Amino acid sequence: MDEKITAVLDAYHERMREEDRRWHAAPPDGSRGWLDQVLLAVGPETGQLINILARSLQAPRILEIGTSYGYSGIWLAEAARASGGRLTTLELQDYKSAHAREMATKAGLAEHIDFQVGDALQLIAALPFTLDFVLLDLWKDLYVPCLEAFLPKLNPGAIIVADNMLRPGGEEVKRYGRAVRATPGMTSVLLPVGSGVEISRYEPT
């Protein structure tokens, strides 16, 4: 990581610590309105993991479903730059995508990222290319529909990472875990990294 990227990640990490302090001082009600204002980022351990995985691929087409405020995108864009690939990141809220673009510009990575705003399922359906790496990190009730949407676009050997499989967990991510493991050609493992990640590799027969 160069100095620009490190500085941007440090800024994100400070925001995470501040949001954690605020949460412990006055726990929120868990509504989507409040959740839309905080990072809800994958965290540094998961960030490092997805960076390592994406870097292992040659010139990968990377798809991030759920830009949020851009933290995981920094890790993925750095991997894209290092491996000759490209990141496309999808976000419903334009203000989140704008913040992510600003931070990516500060990190010197914006030219390696395509920012798209809109409904994730519609944007996935419209992608004109196939995929080598997918990070799934949006509202959990969309995990299975997103899997069904991007599955036809996966290249052999593609890697899929789904976040929050253990925390907060819940029936929706369990349903995704069952669905991805039932997909022909998919090998999958749940790892206790960060909030829990399901890592899957697609090798169709």
How would you characterize this protein structure?
The protein is an alpha/beta fold and 205 residues long. Helix content is 44%, strand content 21%. It contains 8 helices and 7 strands, in the order αααβαβαβαβαβαββ. The protein has helices at residues 3-25, 32-35, 44-55, 71-83, 94-106, 120-126, 143-150, 171-181, and strands at 61-65, 86-91, 113-117, 131-136, 154-162, 186-191, 197-202. Strands 3-2-1-4-5-7-6 form a 7-stranded mixed sheet, with helices on both faces. Helix 4 links the parallel strand 1 (61-65) and strand 2 (86-91). Helix 3 (44-55) runs parallel beside helix 4 (71-83) and helix 6 (120-126) runs parallel beside helix 7 (143-150). The longest helix has 23 residues, at 3-25. The protein is globular. The termini are far apart.
N-C termini distance: 37 Å
Give helix % range: 40-55%
Find the count of extended strands (DSSP E, 2+ residues): 7
Q: If strands are numbered along the chain, what order do they take across the biggest sheet?
A: 3-2-1-4-5-7-6
Choose one word for the global shape. globular
The number of helices is 8
Assign the structural class, choosing from mainly alpha, mainly beta, alpha/beta, alpha+beta, or little secondary structure: alpha/beta
Mean pLDDT, rounded to whole units? 94
Q: How can the largest sheet be summarized?
A: 7 strands, mixed
Q: Please tell me how large the radius of gyration is.
A: 16 Å
Order of helices and strands: HHHEHEHEHEHEHEE
Roughly what fraction of the amino acids lie in strands? 15-25%
Which residues sit in consecutive blocks of at least 5 with pLDDT less than 50? Answer: none
